[in-house]
Structure formats: C-alpha cells, structure tokens
Amino acid sequence: MGVLLEVKDLAVRFYTQDGVVHAVNGISYTLNEGETLGVVGESGSGKSVHALSMLKLIPIPPGKIESGQVLFEGQDLLKMSDEEIRQIRGGKIAMVFQDPMTSLNPVLTIGKQITEALQLHLGMNDKQAKNRAGELLDMVGIPDAHRRLGDYPHQFSGGMRQRVMIAMGLSCNPQLLIADEPTTALDVTIQAQIIELVKKLKDELGMAMIWITHDLGVVAGLADTIQVMYAGRIMERGPVRAVFKDTRNAYTLGLLKSLPRLDIKKGATRLVQISGSPPDMHTDPVGDPFAPRNPYATPRCWEETPPLRPVEDGDPDHYVAAWYDLRQAVKEKPYEEAMQG
Amino acid sequence: MFVYIIRRLLSSIPVILLLTFVIFALMRAIPGGPFDFAGDKSLPKAVTANLERRHHLDWPLGWQFSSYVLGDDITAGICTGLAFLPGCDAVQATADAGISQGLIRGDLGMAMKQRGRTVNDLVAESLPISFQLGMIALALAIVIGIPAGILSALRQNTWLDYSSSFVAVLGLSIPNLVLGPLLIWLFPLTLGWFQVATWGAKPPFILGLFPTNFFTWEFWSHAILPAFTLGTAFSASIARLTRASLLQVIREDYIRTARSKGLRERSVMLVHALKNSLIPVITVLGPLLVILVTGTFVVEQIFGIPGMGKYFVTSISSRDYPVITSVSLIFAVLLVLANLVVDIVYAWLDPRIQYS
User: Fold this and answer.
1) Percent of chain B, pLDDT > 90?
2) What angle do CA B334, B335, B340 make, to 5 degrees?
3) Least enclosed by CB within 10 Å: which of A113, A298, B153, B257?
4) Partner-chain contact B263 A90, CB within 8 Å
5) Which residues of A touch B247 (CB under 8 A)?
6) What is the model's pLDDT at position A268?
7) pLDDT digits (tens, 9 = 90+) for A11-34
8) d(CA B258, CA B272)
9) Are B118 and B108 in contact (CB under 8 A)?
10) Burial (Cβ within 10 Å: 0-12, 13-18, ≥19) of residue B78
11) CA pair distance A194, A159, nearest whole angstrom
C-alpha cells in the first residue's frame, strides 16, 4: 500500500493576548492508503489542532503554522492557495466534527447541506445531487432517507445528526476521512452504533481514516495504528497491539493504568491516576514534556527533548519518544508503586 | 400560522386598552386643562365651564373613558340601565351632545384645541407623511447598515472595518438637530440640490398611506434629506449590530463545517452565516420601524414636514387629551403589528421557531 499522507515537522502556534500557545510542536508521521490511525491524547494535546491545520481550518490569526509540510499524494497542502485547498477540503479529505448539535447549520435543510458539497466537487445538478444525498442518508442508516432531506437539523436526534455528518463527510468519496472526536458528545449506546457504522463504511469504501479521540477503548476496536500525543508532541506510535501490550512511554502507560478493566483480578486495587497537571502550553518546554509527571524520569528527560525513534527489540513499526527504558524501569519498580512513591 | 396571527392580535387588545387608559388617566392628572387659555388670554370662567361640559370633562374619569372607547350613546345607555352608578346623573345630563362615536367605531374623538376638527382628520393627513418618511428612513438604514456591517465583519480589523466603525460612531453621535441644518446648509443652500423644506406628497394617498407621486423627482427631492437625517443614526446602530452578530456566527462550529466542505468563502458567508446573523438584527427592526414612523418630531420641525411627530409634543403641553391619547394608541398598535411581523420573519429565518 502506498503512502497517502506524510506529515513532516508540523508546528502550530496561537498568538493570543495571554501569550503564545505552543499547540503542535514539530510532529511527523505517515499514513498509508486505507489505514486507520487513532490519535489519542488529553484536551490541549494538539490532536485536533494538528488535524485542522492540515486543511488550514484553524483561525489565522491568532493561529499560525510555523513550519512543516503536509504531503498529500505528494503535494504540500500547506503551500496550496486558498482555491487549491478548497478542492481538497470535502473532496479528497473530509472531516466529521465532535458535536453534531452545533456542527450542522440550524437554518438550512439537511438536503441543502449535503448537496452543496456534491454540486461543488462532483459537478452534479440539483436532481442528481438530491438523489445521491438520499442514497447517502440511506447508507448511514437513516430511515425514510429521501423524505428527510427537507428536514432541518433540529428535527433529528444527536445520533442521527452524527450519521448526517458522516454522510456529508463521505459524500464525495474522500480518500481520507478525519473524524475529530465524533462520538464524544454521544451517549454510549449511540457511540457503539456510530463506531460500527464507520467500521462498516470504511470496509466498503476503503478510505484511510484519522480518528481523533481521548477514548483508548474506541481506538482499540477501530484503529490499525495508534498515536499518543502530549503537549503537541507524539509520545508513542505503533500498531495498536504493540502499543497496548508492549508499552514504551510512561504517559501511554499512565493512560492505560487509569482505565477500568473487565479482565482484572478480583479484589484489585483502585485505578491509578496520573499525578500533576497538564503542561502549560504557553511555554515551550525544554526536555520531555511529560517529565514533571513521570516517576521514571531520568535527569536527561529534564534537559533534552527525546526524538521519536524506533523501539529496541520490538515491532518494527513501533516508535517512542523517551530517554528512559520503560520495560527496565517497570521491572525495577512497578507503576502503582512508583506513583505512590 | 393564520390562527397564530389572529390569537396574537386578539391578545394584544387588553394591553392596548390598558395603555390607553393609563395615558388617558395620566394626562388628566397633569394640572391645568385644555381650556384654561385661548392663545395668551385666559378665558372667562363661564366659557371654560361650557367648553369643558361640551367635551364631557365634567364627567367622572371612568365615564369619560367609557365615552372615548364606547361612544356617547352606549355610555348613556349604560347609565340608563344602571342609574345607581356614581356620576350617572352628570352623564345623562349632557350625553346628547354626542361628540364621540367611540374607539369601537373607529372614532378617535374631537380635537379640543383645533376647533371643528376630529382626531381622525389630523391622523389621516399627518400619519401617511410620517409613515412615508419613516419607511424611507428605515429602508435607507437597512440598505446602508447591513452591508456596512457585513463588510466590516468580513474585513475585521482592517482599515475598512476601522473606517466603517468610525463613520458609524460619528453617525450615532451627531444629533439630528445638528445633522439636519448642516445638510440643509450644504445641499440646497450651497450646492442647490434638493429642496430645503416641506414634504413632496399631498393627500389623497393611495390606500391612505402611499404617495401618488412616489416615482417623481418632486417627491424625492423633498424626501432624501430628512430621510437621510433620520436614518443615519439607525443605519449606524444596525451596522454595529450586524457586524457583532456576524462575527459571533463566524465562530460557530457549523461555519467550520461549511469551510471543511470546501465551500467558497463567499458562499460560507452568504449562505451559512448571514441568515443566522440576521436574527438579532431583525429583532431591533420592529421597534425601530415604529420609532421612525412616529418619533420624528425633531426632523419634522427642522424640515417643516407636516407629519404626526409634532402631536406627540404639542398635544401634551396644550392638554389636548383626545389627541395625545389617540397618537399614543396608534403608536401602541403599530408596535404590536411591527413585533408581529418580526415574529413572522423569525419563523422564516429560523426553522426551529414554530408557531401553532
């Protein structure tokens, strides 16, 4: 499979009145055709901003893309003119956003909101676009789809609205779908339905996908590759199984340990939380950004920023940014103990 | 929708009646009366008493109001049937003078200070002129205000935005009292454009409101300056409001969605943002319309326009009770109608709003 998207050293900052926010600090990765990448991180880790920046959807100013390249089919999206990037948006790369309650325009019909992209990118006329929009709604499982094209967003439930958003995203057969926390605003049952739907559609349509979330469970069931972000950097990246079973970064480990598990032994202790607080994005941190909260941090972590490099004797696609050897450190002092000490 | 409109209109009747009564009572609570003086001279006591009796001012307040709303004959009828009510003797003594048919028959009463003229006459000749002036000023305020607001929102924090804001603040801060004479000095007196004063349309009016010579220079040469004077301040506030509202809408999630679909910036603004941003603007347009149509005293004075604005002021100082009550009543009715229109436009702009 060929490389579809290549992000090189992307850095994004926001110049606000309260100072400079270092949202994304030089991240690089590649995405293959048909691959599903799960991007995980807490609020403010830069996971959404990095995706929006690729399509130049962040507000500029105060936002500014400081450096980097985003190569999509060999072309740098960041160097494109407004007209060129518009052809990409919604056409080759589509996005689905977090909150379906606010992401659909309340005063336009669903039909209008789906057909405008079809007419723009695929050059359909009114009638073709309307038929296609009906098919799309049908595909995402909205009953009585053709009749509902004339309805407004407020006449749909939250889950149905997210289905509409997905139909809108898929309307022009994109090669890449970026889903920015698409299930966060939905309740758990609807979440499961939406994830099943996306899985099914992805298998049928074969596009690549970047799924941004803070829910490790969702990623485990959906993604091929997982990428953990913290303070605008990639901390760990690799095939889902490798990252979950052979964790190499203390932050990833912290996230996994803070999750309730069904398979844990009876009488198990309470969940372990990551101590400290998220980093202040106003300062460009020197060293490993997670060092202040990391019980395994070495002196080097405080002084030098670790690069993302392949792990030693592990999966060849598994990368980590850490100066310490987590496997060794955990062997000497288990995580639960380390967090208490 | 039809049922909704009917219900709204019916439910506004008590409000209008209450408001009419409050003004009716408040006016009579002001010391002095309409017949204390004729010009500069005070009238003999007997003459004053006679005039007051003719206009039922010797009746108790409640019966006066009844005469204003229901008419003399019905009021007298009530008194015949329920003669035990206080003040009925006074009513029965002079009810046959028959000067009021009552609001329910569309009679606004007899003007007290303009002999032989009814309030209906005064309204019929002055309201259309104020209406024409107000509508032109409103149209001007919208045509200038909304595009100016959109433009400065789209070009936020550029010289275009700053200069539009500057002009808007200027327009808001210059009182009509200053702007009117300035325009008269500049255009008709210095440049010889437009007319200095008076209104270009005369009765009869089409449907009682619209001028027959609307498409003539005669009409517009009189209308432009006063309408501009009246409209500037409002176009400035509409521009500020449109700008603020649009800037808020632009930050909404669905605008990001629209951009992520690859739409042109122009269609993002005109299709996705504008309709949402006009909702607060429409809200102020209703009351604004009424203020423009009725509250034009200063502009009408400066330009010598025979509109209705002067009655709001002169009829209070001259204690012309039926006139001030009636023009207030008209103001209230217009306000009710304008707000109804605003609510109907809401439903058209925002499908989430439904009336049933």
Assistant:
1) 8
2) 95
3) A298
4) yes
5) none
6) 59
7) 898 898 888 888 888 888 889 888
8) 7
9) yes
10) middle
11) 8
Measured between CA atoms, how close is A205 to chain B, in angstroms? 19
CA nearest to B150, candidates B258, B253, B278: B278
Does A127 score more than 80 pLDDT?
yes
pLDDT value at residue A67? 87
Answer whether residue B40 shows pLDDT above 90: no
Reply yes or no on whether the pLDDT at B245 is more than 90.
Answer: yes
Beta-carbon separation of B267 and A57 below 8 A = no
Inter-chain CB proximity B276 and A57 less than 8 Å: no
Average confidence (pLDDT) over B178-201: 82
- Say whether pTM exceeds 0.80: no
DSSP B189: I
CA distance to partner chain B, nearest, from residue A113 (Å): 8
User: What's the CA gap between A79 and A72, in Å, rounded?
Assistant: 11
Question: Which residues, at least 6 apart from A160, have a Cβ–Cβ distance to it below 8 Å?
Answer: A142
| Mean pLDDT over the full length of chain A | 86
- Which one of B257, B259, B345 makes the best mutation probe of the A interface by having the most chain A beta carbons within 10 Å? B257
B82: CB partners within 8 A, 6+ apart: B88
* Residues B261, A82: C-beta atoms closer than 8 Å: no
pLDDT tens, residue by residue, A276-312: 888 888 877 788 888 888 888 888 888 888 888 888 8
Determine if the peptide bond prior to A62 is cis (ω within 30°): yes
Q: Does residue A157 sit in helix, strand or coil?
A: coil
Return the number of other C-beta atoms located less than 10 Å from residue B104's C-beta: 10
Sign of CA dihedral A200, A205, A208, A211: negative
* Residues B32 and B319: beta-carbon distance below 8 Å: yes
Tokens, residue B154: 């789209």
Chain B residues touching residue A104 (CB < 8 angstroms): 254, 257
What is the identity of the amino acid at A5? L
The answer to whether the CB of A10 falls within 8 A of the CB of A233 is no
Tell me: pLDDT of A250 over 90. no
* Sheet (strand A93-96) strand order: A93-96, A176-180, A208-213, A36-40, A225-230, A233-239, A319-320, A309-310
* Record: contact A105-B259, CB cut-off 8 A: no
Mutation target for A interface from B261, B267, B354: give the one with most A CBs within 10 A.
B261
Q: Which residues of A touch B (CB under 8 A)?
A: 52, 55, 57, 82, 86-91, 94-95, 97, 99, 102-108, 116-117, 120-121, 152, 154, 165, 168
Q: Are A103 and B351 an interchain contact pair (Cβ–Cβ within 8 Å)? A: no
Mutate to test the interface with B, among A54, A103, A156, A162 (most CBs of B within 10 A): A103
First to last CA, chain B: 6
Angstrom distance (rounded) from CA A156 to CA A148: 9
**Minimum-distance CB partner of A117 among B261, B271, B275:** B261
- Residue B254: pLDDT over 70: yes
Q: Whole-number mean pLDDT of chain B? A: 85
pLDDT of B37 higher than 80:
no
pLDDT tens sequence across A147-205: 898 899 999 888 888 888 888 888 888 889 998 888 877 788 888 888 888 888 888 88
Q: pLDDT at residue A267 above 70?
A: no
Q: Quote the CA–CA distance of A66 and A275 in Å, as a whole number.
A: 32
Taking a C-beta distance cutoff of 8 angstroms, is the pair B164, B148 a contact? yes
Return the residue matching tokens 């619209």: B210
Q: Give dist(CA B315, CA B288) in Å, integer.
A: 23
Q: Check residue B80 and give its pLDDT.
A: 81
